[in-house]
Amino acid sequence: MPESVDDLRFFTVVAASETLTAAARGLGCSLPVVSKRLAAMEQRLGVRLVRRGTRRLVLTSEGAALAKGIGPILTDVQRLEEEISGGSGELRGTLVVESTLGIGRAHIGPLLGEFGARHPRLAIRLTTTPLPVSPHRRDFDVAIHVGPLHDSTLRMRRLARNRRVVCASPAYVREHNAPATVHELAGHNCILLRENHGDYALWRFGEGSEEFRVRVAGTLSSDDGDVVTGWALEGRGLIMRSTWQVAPLLKDGRLVRVLADVPTPNADVYALHAPADHVPARVTAVLDFLGERLPERLA
Q: Is the dihedral of CA 290, 291, 293, 295 positive or negative?
């Protein structure tokens, strides 16, 4: 068996990663260190845990069995640690948070810094990704996701209300006039955000069963939300962005909403975590904290 609980935690990250390089990033160490430690575990156990020579990390049957059995053990260890240290009221251990890049950089990162200051014995590791959070990878305690997620195996907690809205700079509206209906979007330069491998030229309006999509076009597109917003601020066209991203710009007048009377679907901010009979205290604490502070930042 692995020599320590730390080995179990190490292999949990390896098993949940797509490559050893990704595991090294998640563990905060170099690829050679991960390879050496994994080889040492395999030597002690006398079996291969990971198949080498593939583009993606593939567990052997023995590796898969080990990964499956680790979860309940680590849950029991976490419960025991909390029972022992519960009298102090301190959060300990490591909190692993994954978030999509934009909201992670703008809001989740600063809030986790604030949370960490309140709990100095807790190590916090935030990973941001430009792609939607993958609920099938469980190398996180909490994942932050914007918009609906159809995965019943995870517990979801709404942290803040959010919608996507169409907006432009006052200068653009003065020069080109604001569209009065969604059909008039065809006559405007719509700045496109290429994300999530979806059809980014379709803008969604309406709610529930009355939701509909409008195809838009324009001369500018980017896979970077900050670049897209910057173009809008320069008066180069219309954008459709989340309120968590543009609310400060709307408040100070650098952007103005257009088509404000046309509803848009909910794209609320959710926290996801694995279902368990015993939710670690660090997870409960950070969910409560984010549920209180994130709406305040977005107000």
A: positive
The four Cα atoms 126, 132, 138, 143 give a dihedral, to 10 degrees, of 50
H or E segment to which residue 142 belongs: strand 142-146
Residue 141 vs residues 103, 148, 149, 186, 287: alpha-carbon distances, Å: 18, 19, 17, 44, 11
Domain assignment present for residue 213? The answer is yes
d(CA 76, CA 161): 35
> Is the pLDDT confidence value at 298 over 90?
no
For the chain, the domain total comes to: 3
**pTM score:** 0.71
Percent helix / strand / coil, the chain, rounded to 5: 45, 20, 35
| C-alpha radius of gyration, the chain, whole number | 23
Residue 137 confidence class, pLDDT cut points 50, 70, 90: low
Residue 35 inside a domain? The answer is yes
Decide if 262 is inside a domain.
Answer: no
Residue labelled with tokens 């002690």: 44
- Average the pLDDT over 117-141 and give the result: 78
Q: Taking every pair of C-alpha atoms in the chain, what is the biggest distance, in angstroms?
A: 73
Percentage above 70 pLDDT, the chain: 87
For residue 18, the enclosing domain spans 1-86
Question: Could you tell me the CATH number of the domain that includes residue 249?
Answer: 3.40.190.10
Q: What's the mean pLDDT in 232-255?
A: 94
> In terms of Cα–Cα distance, which of 203, 181, 183 is closest to 192?
203
Comparing 19-33, 94-108, 127-141, 285-299, the range with the smallest average pLDDT is 127-141
